[in-house]
Prior knowledge:
It is found in: Membrane. By secondary structure, this protein is mostly helical.
Amino acid sequence: xxxxxxxxxxxxxxxxxxxxxxxxxxxxxxxxxxxxxxxxxxxxxxxxxxxxxxxxxxxxxxxxxxxxxxxxxxxxxxxxxxxxxxxxxxxxxxxxxxxxxxxxxxxxxxxxxxxxxxxxxxxxxxxxxxxxxxxxxxxxxxxxxxxxxxxxxxxxxxxxxxxxxxxxxxxxxxxxxxxxxxxxxxxxxxxxxxxxxxxxxxxxxxxxxxxxxxxxxxxxxxxxxxxxxxxxxxxxxxxxxxxxxxxxxxxxxxxxxxxxxxxxxxxxxxxxxxxxxxxxxxxxxxxxxxxxxxxxxxxxxxxxxxxxxxxxxxxxxxxxxxxxxxxxxxxxxxxxxxxxxxxxxxxxxxxxxxxxxxxxxxxxxxxxxxxxxxxxxxxxxxxxx
Length: 385
């Protein structure tokens, strides 16, 4: 657990990632976009493999790097083809191309115009079918997962279907819904992973009750020091250990499922309203169906947390642990503390982060203006609405 405190490159890597993200948001040139993506991606590659002694982290980071390299090749190929046909890499200069379509329709023969108009609609329809693929795959495969981070990964695929649905409609309302959904899902996802991290730290003093259960769990776990919570079964009965953290995780999972009146419900409502208003009835029905199915595995996690009895007991090696600690400031001892397993608390930064984000998820219904205004402003800036 202590390895992360020995790594001094964290701040520099985070700075590279944030810098790349800011450049990506603020640029409108394809070359600058590519460089911004690369700057951000290199930081993410390093962050993925920063635990050098962890074989799973290293192999996962290597796969991430190879996938990113392949994606970069496609970005460069698309940029080169666009430059070869238009003579520019600036997205603002490409807007004039869209205004030529009315002249093209008017100038070419009617038979050809019919073909050109239909092909565009077919391609959009196929793109919408891909959205169905995204939402269904993410939902159905998530039902079979027993590992918590894999389940969140497939859950993300399902949510990407919602995000792309809002983006593909391309109206003012759908774009604003897209931005709001992206913001609320990012906030909820951040809270979920902070909670998983916190639960892992809080269980370091505990062990599985039966030795055979401990051995069975250990066989399915890898790199426990850096990822203490890996299986959904490890959350069993956590409500009886720390009710506040369990309640925060339950609220976050309900928000993922779109249960009112949490913030996730309003994100899905905005996307579905935009889809129905613009005639995308079939896509809206598919999105509703997959959302209902995905609620099954969220509820399965909640059942284990709140209704199953915990297998955890205080670790025998730490049961009688008792130590005296000294808190100093400027070489002056101003407080003595007694450290036991029953008075080890979560750090202030984690507690504050979880509290603030959980309150935002829960109380959004009473203060919606701030996030909605932020989503509208971002939609206006990024999409020139």
